[in-house]
């Protein structure tokens, strides 16, 4: 075994297996449990709530966090789905790419997130934001766009750093994680050739991205989440091999 991380949970983002999930949700979730995953991170949770609830009960699975779009979607349906599944952390998974050239637009979005955080808290939920590469490439008022954005967020709003996309965007990922500190409560872990071509993504440990350095720098997180946006290989195999690599290289409490 390698180093002990501060992480308590290793999960898999269900967007990785979206095709299999659409074809056979119960079978796909059972397969993930057979691989050894105990936690998943859903996406579009309000649309999947009943199949997930049944599969969670049948396979001993749980979800701490979920991706959804409460900024533009049906907040009450999303909140209700989270309660049904025992999810406590709601992650806004993205924002308009074109917005990140306009400081005023980003400030406005931060304000909307702050208002949403109040509603989420009233529903018993924590709120977070998940990055891609464009928030890193952005420069607003002479600063990295993500940092400009974070400084305008209510302190209760957490960050889920997608370490791969931060790397693609040109960040020194360990330094970024250090700068963001304990606001980063979870990370997405993925591997590949470090380009925008999602088809080149592979099992964690099989690519060229220094994923272990990123994990070791994420000292305040409680969850590490395996994700592939896409792959040219068999997705379920990559998800399985990612878990095998990670549990062999680091101890997950």
Care to describe what's here?
It is a single chain. With 253 residues, the protein is an alpha/beta fold. It has a single domain, classed as Divalent-metal-dependent TIM barrel enzymes (TIM Barrel). The chain contains 11 helices and 10 strands. The protein has helices spanning 18-23, 25-35, 45-59, 75-85, 103-122, 134-137, 145-150, 163-168, 173-180, 211-217, 235-249, and strands spanning 9-13, 39-41, 65-67, 89-92, 126-130, 139-140, 143-144, 158-162, 184-189, 223-226.
Q: Tally the helices: what do you get?
A: 11
Low-confidence region ranges: 1-5
The name of the CATH architecture is: Alpha-Beta Barrel
Please write the string of helix (H) and strand (E) elements. Answer: EHHEHEHEHEHEEHEHHEHEH
CATH class: Alpha Beta
Strand content: 15-25%
Number of strands: 10
What portion of residues is helical? Answer: 40-55%
Distance between the termini: 12 Å
Average the pLDDT over all residues and give the rounded result.
95
Task: Find the structural class using helix and strand composition.
Answer: alpha/beta
- Give the total of domains: 1
CATH topology (fold) name: TIM Barrel
